[in-house]
Amino acid sequence: MAVNHYHDIFISDDFQEYDFVSSGKQIIKKRIKFELIDELEQVYNLSLCTVLDNGKKDYQTASKNGDMVKILETIGIIALKYTDHYPERKIYFTGSDNLRTRQYELSIFSQLNLVLDYFTIEGITVDYKEFALREDFKTGKNYNAFIFTRRH
Fold it and tell me: What Rg do the C-alpha atoms of the chain give, in angstroms?
């Protein structure tokens, strides 16, 4: 799917964690983890964090390492690897804040034709009453989160 991604990806035995090194302005260890959030629908949250030198995980701080596109393409490759192993699972994905979610949305839009070759995408919006609405992803609309389902 992606051309310019990080190739050295360590995958845990249960395929739930993926580690790679972001090599932009600095060398930063990154981790993607999948966690069950909806057993009935088999939806798993994809979270991205920085693994600090002391082993703690930072989910909030933006690395600003100058390689965001490469990291997003690596996330795409990992999503493919994950759904190769677990094709029935759906992937829930959102940013840690509105700005990051919007950046992810723009990235999805910029690669939409390629992404749609592998996944169907649902956009999730949350209204002022905290009511969530799921719909097929539409370009030009802002979403709070996304659900990716592997095409078979």
Answer: 15
